[in-house]
Amino acid sequence: MRIIELTEEARTNILENLLKRSPNSYGEFEGRVNEIIENVRANRDAAIFDYTKRFDGADINAENILVTEDEIKEAYEKVDEKLLTVIRKALVNIRKYHEKQRQYSWFDSEESGIILGQKVTALEKVGVYVPGGKAVYPSSVLMNIVPAKVAGVKTIVMTTPPGKDGKVNPATLVAAKEAGVDAIYKVGGAQAIAALAFGTESVPKVDKIVGPGNIYVALAKKAVFGFVSIDSIAGPSEIMVLADETANPRFVAADLLSQAEHDEMASAILVTTSRDLAEQVSKEVEGFVAQLSRKEIIQKSLDNYGYILVAESMDEAIATVNEIASEHLELVTNNPFETMTKIRNAGAIFVGEYSSEPLGDYFAGPNHVLPTNGTAKFFSPLSVDDFIKKSSIISYSREALEPIYKDIVQFAECEQLTAHANSIRVRFED
C-alpha cells in the first residue's frame, strides 16, 4: 500500500478522490435508469418480466415471480445446518440490539386543558432490495428486515434477482424467512426499485425501499425518492483504521483487506502516528493479498483507493478521521475508548484490537447498513427509526386557547394570512 505523509494537500486530494466513488458522480447512467423506471410505470409486469429475461436470463411471469413455500422449503434442505445455526444466533443479537431502539408515543397534559404529544406509527409496507448475481449476502437480509420487523411494519416484501434457472439463492431465502419477511419477488435491478415504488400487477407498491445494490439500483432509489422514502444512496464500502505504535500490524492489515475485497471501488485507509507501523502494515498487506481468493479485486481497490497516512500527532490523525467520515472506523490505540470520545463522524466505530469490522457485519447486533462517502457527517446507520413515522398531537380547550388567541391572531396578521387569523378569531366572536 502507498504510504503518504499526512498534509493538508494530501488530505484534500484523498477526499476528492474518494468522492468520485459516489453514485452522484455517475450521471451517465441516469438516462438508462430513468428509461427503465418510466417503462415499468407504463407497462408494469410486462416491463419487469422483459428486463428479467434480458438482464438475468430468467423466464419470469405472473405465475412464478412470487417465491412459493415449496421453494423456501427446498432452500432449507440445501442450506448447511451449521450456517442455519449461525443465522439464528446472529438474529438473536440483531433483534436484541434493535429492540433497544424502539420509540413510543407520548402525551403531556396540563390542568389548563392543553394536551401535546407525539404519536409513533410504524410504516405500513416496506420493500427490501437484496442483490443477486455472483455475491450472496444473507447478512444484509437480516440487517434490513429485522429493524423493520421490530418497528412493527405490517408488510415486508423483498425483491432479489433470480438466477438463469429462475431460482433465488437458498441462503438468501432462508435468511429472509428466519427474519420474518412476508413475500419475496424474483426481480432485481432498477426495474425492481421501480416496481416497489409504483407497483405492478404482481409487485405491491411500498412506502419505503431499503437495501444495497449496484449503481443502477442506487440511481433508481435516488430517482424514486419522493414517491417513496428510501434509506440512503449507498456508495462502495470503506474502512478506516486509526492506530498508534501499540497496534498489531498483522491485525490492521487483515482488517483493511476485509473491505477491499468487496469491490474494486472500495476504500481502505490506515491513519497512524507511527511510521514503523505504516511500513509493517504495508508488508503484511502484500503477504495477505498474495494468498487471498479475491486478490485481483483487492489489489485494484488498494491501487485506486487504498492509503496509509502518517500523521505527526494523534490530534491531526483524529481530525483527518473526522473529515473523511468513514463507513467503518476501527480504533486501535493505547486507550481506544478515550480516542472514541473524540470521534464525531463515522458510521460504526469498532473499539479495540479484537473488535474487527466483520464482527459488526455478521454477528454483534448493530446494523451494518451504514452511511458512506462522507455522509456519516449527517446520516446514521439503518435502525428502527427508519421504519416509523411521527405525528404531532395538539389539543386545546376553550379555556386554554382564550388567554393566547389574540397572540396567534397578531402573528397571522403579521404574515398577512387573514384566513389563519379568522380561524382563531371566530371562536371568540361572542
Automatic annotation (TrEMBL):
GO terms for cellular component: cytosol. Binds 1 zinc ion per subunit. It is an enzyme of class 1 (oxidoreductase). Gene3D superfamilies: 1.20.5.1300, Nitrogenase molybdenum iron protein domain. Substrate binds at S237, Q259, H262, H328, D361, E415, H420. Pfam families: Histidinol_dh (PF00815). Transmembrane segments: none annotated. Its EC number is 1.1.1.23. It comes from the Bacteria. The active site is at E327 (proton acceptor), H328 (proton acceptor). GO terms for molecular function: histidinol dehydrogenase activity; NAD binding; zinc ion binding. NAD(+) binds at Y129, Q191, N214. Zn(2+) binds at Q259, H262, D361, H420. Its cofactor is Zn(2+). Catalyzes the sequential NAD-dependent oxidations of L-histidinol to L-histidinaldehyde and then to L-histidine. Belongs to the histidinol dehydrogenase family. This is Histidinol dehydrogenase. The lineage of its organism: Bacteria, Bacillati, Bacillota, Clostridia, Lachnospirales.
